[in-house]
Write a structure and sequence with these properties.
Blueprint: H1 2-29, H2 33-55, H3 75-88, H4 103-122, H5 133-167, H6 174-198, H7 205-225, H8 251-263, H9 275-282, H10 286-296, H11 301-317, H12 327-334, H13 339-350, H14 354-360
Protein name: Transcriptional regulator, AraC family
Transmembrane segments: 6-28, 35-54, 66-86, 98-115, 135-155, 176-196, 202-224
GO molecular function, one term: DNA-binding transcription factor activity
């Protein structure tokens, strides 16, 4: 039984480390939030590897590679904070200087590695760094405090997102609730067990091992199917715009003309349509057209146009006469000018990728 547990831990570690590396590389190339989800999984994968090491008494072996020296719990609250900001705040931009927040972690890993290396080379017996109160506080207690704070902020943002989602008239399915609260719920339970083990000194290590093993396999499965599963769709928050001094225009009449330009004249199929071109077509000032879209359509220009493009693609997907065309061909016909833009916008407006939408609506 003990051997089976060790094998299971090792498999969970392999699953977690492969997924974390793939997410980090994905984040470097495209989606920044994936970097921080990958870092979180990296820390958890090392934790389950540590459980394997304890199980097989690897730590005491003379040939042991001290992998535990590259693990820092401080990575968890920091990475979760940036992941939460990037996935719940559509206007948030992660800047290169923010990596400076990770400097204390590099310092921790350096001190720990030097401490272990010096003791190993000299053959002298050194006390554990965890026996030093300030070190214990900074590396064990501070990450727990940080996780509690970040989870409180993250949970509030998720609840606000749920309210906005419902206010937009969009139903939340069971999958939607899991997508919204799955990662949060897992980290919340993990933090509670973490607090119970470190602060209250309860015997919860076996529960933590089981939770990490199950979730690393589960997250690995989800990650391979949909790497952006926990990235929430963007809900457009309209800007508060004061009405320009265009009192001679009838808003309702011009709004009908605006919609007719898309519904009847398919203006959205112009791939590089601009606000100025739309305004010129309607013979209206661009500021007034922007006002109509922001105020009466609760949107901005790009999202307003893209909504018609997505609806055009969805309509043609259900049209038997269009079945001989690929989804990408329909996207280009609707006005999208790249595959990546189409996939991103389609997910934002429907909550599903084009392939997921086709599976549900076949």
């Amino acid at each position: 039984m003990e051997n089976w547990k060790a094998i299971l831990y090792l498999l969970a570690f392999g699953q977690g480390i492969i997924l974390s590396i793939s997410l980090i590389f994905r984040g470097i190339k495209r989606e920044r939030a994936s970097i921080f989800l990958g870092i979180i999984l990296f820390v958890l994968a090392l934790e389950i590897l540590n459980a394997w090491g304890i199980q097989v008494r690897y730590h005491k072996a003379s040939y042991a590679i001290p992998f535990w020296n590259i693990q820092s719990y401080l990575l968890l609250p920091l990475s979760l904070w940036f992941f939460a900001k990037l996935t719940t705040d559509q206007d948030y931009v992660f800047r290169k200087r923010y990596w400076l927040f990770f400097t204390p972690i590099l310092l921790e890993l350096t001190i720990r590695s030097l401490w272990h290396s010096y003791a190993r080379w000299t053959g002298k017996s050194f006390p554990s760094l965890l026996d030093i109160p300030i070190w214990f506080f900074l590396t064990e207690l501070l990450p727990i405090i940080g996780m509690c704070i970040v989870l409180a902020v993250y949970g509030r943002k998720l609840f606000a997102f749920q309210s906005d989602w419902k206010n937009n008239g969009l139903p939340l399915t069971i999958r939607g609730y899991f997508r919204l609260y799955g990662l949060f719920g897992f980290l919340l339970v993990l933090t509670i067990l973490w607090f119970a083990g470190v602060v209250l000194e309860w015997p919860v290590f076996a529960s933590v091992e089981a939770l990490l093993t199950i979730c690393l396999f589960g997250l690995g499965y989800i990650g391979y199917l949909s790497p952006t599963f926990f990235n929430l769709p963007v809900l457009v928050k309209p800007k508060v715009v004061e009405k320009p001094d265009f009192l001679n225009y009838d808003d309702l009449a011009e709004l009908k003309r605006l919609h007719a330009a898309f519904v009847q004249d398919s203006l959205h199929t112009q791939s590089k349509l601009t606000l100025e071109e739309l305004a010129a077509t309607l013979h209206l000032p661009s500021r007034y057209v922007s006002y109509l879209i922001n105020t009466h359509c609760a949107s901005n220009f790009n999202n307003f146009v893209n909504r018609f493009r997505v609806e055009e693609v969805i309509r043609k997907l259900g049209d038997p006469k269009e079945q001989h065309k690929t989804v990408l061909a329909l996207a280009f016909e609707a006005g999208f000018n790249s595959k990546s833009t189409f996939n991103q916008v389609f997910r934002q407006h429907t909550g599903k990728s084009p392939s997921q939408y086709l599976l549900v609506h076949k």
